[in-house]
Amino acid sequence: MTRRILLVTHANRPDLPALATEVATQLREHGIEVHELEQGWDSLEDDPEVAALAADAELVVILGGDGTILRGAEVSRAAGIPLLGINHGRVGFLAEAEREHTSHVVDRIVARDYAVEDRMTLEVNVYRDGDHVAHTWALNEASVEKSARERMLELTVEIDGRPLSTWGCDGVVVATPTGSTAYAFSGGGPIVWPDVQAVLVVPISAHALFARPVVLGPDTRVAVEVVPHATTHGVMWCDGRRTVDLPPGARIEVCRSDTPVRLARLTSDPFTDRLVAKFALPVAGWRGKPDGAPA
């Protein structure tokens, strides 16, 4: 059976088309069918042609940064196939390799030398005037943000059917452990190791005495409501990709999804090493465990 790879690139990077062609050529030399998809689409998961290509594909390979990887996740999650990112952006937390290792990644793909790790995602439903108006999902986060820069947004957060607090704020982020190093991190949330099953709620610039990030169990159901008397509208973003307007009284409900995003892994390096590398953390003085100490 012919092996099939979907190759997704960032369309606005002038250096990537030539590299994508080179990667595709190397894969085809080993009898692997490659379909190249650029970033200039509205939604990969809504494209029936892409869905048909992904139906029996082995892997989605991304050349780009985290934004491009999140776009590629739209097709990989829907098809249940792994996603492998090669970082050509800035931080590239979701990427498995850096640009200088592209040829090595191709060799690993050819040899099928990779493991697969499932990452938790969020299921998101939106209601307006009691009517269900949207259903979507998120790998990193679902955020509710103000639509007018000059005004605060009034939001009530509910946990498992009970109110937690109402905040005048810039917004609220509901994130996965994978997303704890993204928007939630910028808002002062904790870093959560990706193998932890949890949901994070992080208020953004809340004008309140109690405005701390909270870490919740994986089966917790979170709701965020724009208070009915609010004078500012909100907008919901999922992974910075999928958006829904939220007028006063609108409500989003978030819970763990049964459908993960599958990431192809090339190494078994611990997450600690990834944090140190991506954030350039100082570790001078570390000597490891004393000789003779148990591992």
Topology:
Elements lengths: L2 E7 L6 H13 L3 E7 L9 H7 L4 E6 L1 H14 L3 E5 L9 E2 L3 H9 L4 E5 L2 E7 L2 E8 L2 E6 L6 E7 L2 E8 L1 E5 L7 H4 L12 E6 L9 E3 L5 E5 L7 E5 L3 E5 L4 E6 L4 E5 L5 H9 L16
Parallel strand pairs: 1-2, 1-3, 3-4, 4-5
Antiparallel strand pairs: 6-19, 7-8, 7-18, 9-12, 9-16, 10-11, 10-15, 12-13, 13-14, 15-18, 16-17
3D architecture notes:
- This protein has 295 residues and is of the alpha+beta class.
- Helix 1 (16-28) links the parallel strand 1 and strand 2.
- It has helices spanning 16-28, 48-54, 66-79, 102-110, 183-186, 271-279, and strands at residues 3-9, 32-38, 59-64, 83-87, 97-98, 115-119, 122-128, 131-138, 141-146, 153-159, 162-169, 171-175, 199-204, 214-216, 222-226, 234-238, 242-246, 251-256, 261-265.
- The chain contains six helices and 19 strands.
- It starts with a strand and ends in a 16-residue tail after the last helix.
- The radius of gyration is 21 Å and the shape is globular.
- The strands form four sheets. A six-stranded antiparallel beta sheet has the order 8-7-18-15-10-11, with no helix packed on it.
Short description:
The chain has 295 residues and is α+β, with helices and mostly antiparallel strands. Helices cover 19% and strands 37% of the residues.
Structural class: alpha+beta
Secondary-structure element order, as H and E?
A: EHEHEHEEHEEEEEEEHEEEEEEEH
Summarize the amount of helix as a percent range: 10-25%
Give the count of helical stretches: 6
By DSSP, the count of extended strands is 19
The residue ranges in which pLDDT falls below 50 over 5 or more consecutive positions are none
Q: How much is the radius of gyration in Å? A: 21 Å
The residue-averaged pLDDT reads: 92
What share of residues are in beta strands? 35-45%
Strand order of the largest sheet: 8-7-18-15-10-11
Distance between the terminal alpha carbons, to the nearest Å? 45 Å
Largest sheet: 6 strands, antiparallel
Which geometry do the CA atoms define?
globular
